[in-house]
Amino acid sequence: MIPVPARATITILEKNSWRFSAAGFVEMDAFIDTTRSFLEAQGNTPVLRADVTAGKTGRTQYSMRNSRLQFDIDAPKVGAWSTNASFEFDFMGFDPEPPVAGNTETSFMSSPTFRARELFVHAANEDGWEAIVGQYWSLFGWQPYYFSSHADVAPLAGTLNARDTQLRGMKTFNFGNGNSMALALAVSRPPQRDAQLPALDGGIRAVLGKRKAGYTTSTAGPRALRQLSVGLSGTAREFETPRTGGQVGEVSYFPGLALAFDAFVPVWAANAGSEVPDNTVSFVVEGTIGRGYGDLFPGWSGNLSTNAGGGNLDPGIGGQDALGNFRLIEMRSASGSFQYQLPDPMRTWFSLGYGQMFSTNAGLFVGGNGLKVYTRDETYFVNTFHDLADHLRIGLEYVFSSTSYTDGPVAHNHRIQLGTWFTF
User: Fold this and answer.
1) Are the C-beta atoms of residues 282 and 267 closer than 8 Å to each other?
2) What does 193-212 look like in DSSP terms, one character per residue?
3) Contact (CB, 8 A) for 165 and 194
4) Confidence band (pLDDT; 50, 70, 90) for 4?
5) pTM check: above 0.70
6) What top-level class would CATH report for the domain 10-423?
7) Contact 262, 145 (CB under 8 A)
8) Is the pLDDT reported for residue 388 higher than 50?
9) Helix, strand, coil in percent for the chain, rounding step 5
């Protein structure tokens, strides 16, 4: 199965084999940081250096912007095919951080912008064929199945986290005894609007054996058992810039390519036949390598100049070196986390993890707007969650983040976060 998010569980209307349902959660987060580098999500945003005030002074923030609202529409079955449409929204939409564009702190935090996270149609038949059309998680990295479990608003450094408009097809082969293999291909929105070809993503994923361990991926996700699984995926994308010294309309082409490896391992498995994540340990790991895929790591920019001779390009994908030549950014990432689910009556779990993203050639680039180039982001985290009830969860987390700059300094931030989630 395509790892579609948890389906909405509250049925609002059911008539003539159509069903309209809703779900979501109300989230409240309180953050204490030792620098002023971040909003709610840290991602791969750099920790500010200690040679500026914001890099030496902390701040406290409260936010409810990561709250969610989801709607699902299930259509009548047609032959062997079942179809549904899913809509998911949050309040993390485009809204310049104060004081940009005259935006105030009160309006930014208390009147946030409504945002579409997922808008897609999912179809599946009884023979293992599936399709997704619309905005959904990227196939690269088999998102969102292998996300680390943390209280911080996703993502943390070194973790793929991207949704995009796509056409995806997948075939799952079931071999019995809990073993299966899935092959998938997706044609996605070009990462550069001025490019002429869409991005192409492909992947293979195997689910092996019957050993299972508990894992809770997202802050408001269910406590569930998962099997051992391994995923390989790749992405190919094209970028264009005006050709230096060329005629009007002549462009240079730059291919972006990347590979990802993901795995979920039940280290200490649940008892055979158990349906609850009772006293289990699991490990999830991800690694990537490639060039021209920095847009899949939110917050990453390297502080690079992106004025690629007039080519339109989002930060973190490519830029100009000291000689004025355009290059794609070469990147590596690695992340992993352990999770221990305590015996079931306690409804509590602990996670600890690490993430790193770095560029092997960012040091050749020119910083944009007078900023110093950074080449590495790292994060360590430890957290605990407890379900007070089926619909009410609390979490406490400590995160240590660091950013390495090419001229020597390494900046650090310590964050303590308390979160609450009311799910429905």
Assistant:
1) yes
2) TT-SS-EEEEEEEEEEEEEE
3) no
4) very low
5) yes
6) mainly beta
7) yes
8) yes
9) 5, 55, 40
Question: What digits encode the pLDDT tens for the residues 128-170?
Answer: 999 999 999 999 999 999 999 888 888 889 999 999 999 999 9
Residue 100, number of CB atoms within 10 A of its CB: 9
Q: Residue type at 40?
A: E
Cβ 53 vs Cβ 95: under 8 Å: no
Tokens of 410: 């390494």
The mean pLDDT value for 35-47 works out to: 93
Assess contact for 235 and 201: CB atoms under 8 A: yes
pLDDT tens-digit map of 172-195: 999 998 899 999 999 999 999 888
- Identity of residue 94: F
Domain ranges across the chain:
10-423
Helices (H), 35-111: 105-110
Cβ–Cβ under 8 Å, residues 41 and 29:
no
Angle at 161 between CA 156 and CA 162, to 5 degrees: 150
Mean pLDDT of 48-75: 95
| Residue whose entry in the numeric block shows the structure tokens 């409260």 | 62
